[in-house]
Amino acid sequence: MIAGLAVCSRIADVWTTYQVSPTLKLEANSVAHHLGWRFALLTILVGLAAYLSPPLGVIIFTASFIVAASNASKIMMAKAIGEDELAALSQRVILATPPWPGLFFMVTPGLFIGLLGGSLLFFYPAGPQWGHYFGVGMLVYAFAVLVWYPVRYFRVRAQASHPSTR
């Protein structure tokens, strides 16, 4: 059951990513951005780690379903205006916002999910309670946002100041 959820969550992440950014132009994760769809598809296999460790499976499916939800919130806009226009709009917004509040606003969703995950860890401080692993999964997502969103933010700003690196 947990492995099935973990694999489904990875499929949901990859599918929603494809719906928003078929060329991975909008992908925040630099590794996935550079290695492409073969790598993204291989990450589905990460869900099988639940067979080795059910708690790890809960962490994987919690983080992956949150990523998929975040991606899914952008599908309608991506379908309406297209990936290129969404990337251009994103670039215009990033460049029009001063660095300090812009970066802060980008990572705020991760901070809120991190607070929720931290709250679960407060109430479930150690395994084998499932709430603990859900909390860790939320913190994994929060960490990813706190790492990859700033990377994408600075990549977009750097590409705008050096157009030849696009």
Estimate the global geometry from the Cα principal axes: globular
* Low-pLDDT segments: none
What would you call the structural class?
Answer: mainly alpha
Distance between the termini: 43 Å
Largest sheet: none
Instruction: Give the beta-strand count.
Output: 0
How much of the sequence is in beta strands? under 5%
The domain count comes to 1
Estimate the mean pLDDT confidence.
95
Share in helix: over 70%
In DSSP terms (H or I, runs of 4 or more residues), the helix count works out at: 7
H/E element string? HHHHHHH
Radius of gyration: 17 Å
Characterize the quaternary organization of these chains: single chain
List the helices and strands and how they pair.
Layout: H1 2-20, H2 30-42, H3 54-72, H4 75-81, H5 83-96, H6 99-123, H7 130-161
How is this structure best described in words?
The longest helix has 32 residues, at 130-161. The protein has helices spanning 2-20, 30-42, 54-72, 75-81, 83-96, 99-123, 130-161. The chain is mostly helical and 166 residues long. It has seven helices and no strands. The model has no long low-confidence stretch (mean pLDDT 95). The protein is globular and about 50 Å long.
Structure summary:
It is built from seven helices and no strands.
Describe the structure using short key phrases.
166 residues; mainly alpha; globular
